[in-house]
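Journal club prep — side note

Before the paper discussion, L.F. wants everyone to see what a predicted structure for a comparable chain looks like in token form. Sequence:
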Amino acid sequence: MGVCVKILHTAIRGVEVVNTIPITDHRGALTRFFCEEELSEILNGRRIVQINHSRTEKVGAVRGLHYQDSPCAEMKLVRCLKGKVWDVAVDLRKNSPCFLRWYAEELTPYNARMLVIPEGCAHGFQVLEAGSELLYLHTARYNGLLDAGVRYSDPKLDIQWPLPVRDLSERDQKHPLLSKDFSGITV
């Protein structure tokens, strides 16, 4: 089948875009969603231990910004299965040269891209098409006691969401703003 992925590095260390190369013919296409060997550079010994799927109905809805604290910090690999989303990774890592910087990528089934969000980075997205669905591959199990988040509208981050934000969960509305002395998380 040959090489099916191309890894594109971003300015934030560990935040990667995996460009998936579909195999097409007159019948349609086959897209490899995951290959441990082809992603070994990114996984670097980590294993995928949990896979989740989400569906978000309303255009403009935002989910996030979420992360898990150590010792359950996780890498996420996020792919859009249906619709279109604007996917965001925020660097919260203490002593990172990109501390509090964010990177966003539009994900669709048609561009076949996957965003890699490393440990110590928060993740969120905004729905650009109704009924959008995401597939998440995680390197750690969910642990509700270590679940954390940052408010999507934190002025320290100044994320430029492409649409007016609407339809936030109660949980996401209650995420704190970063304090003025926030120095990052350790992973």
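L.F.'s comment for the group: The mean pLDDT is 95. Keep this in mind when we get to the figures.
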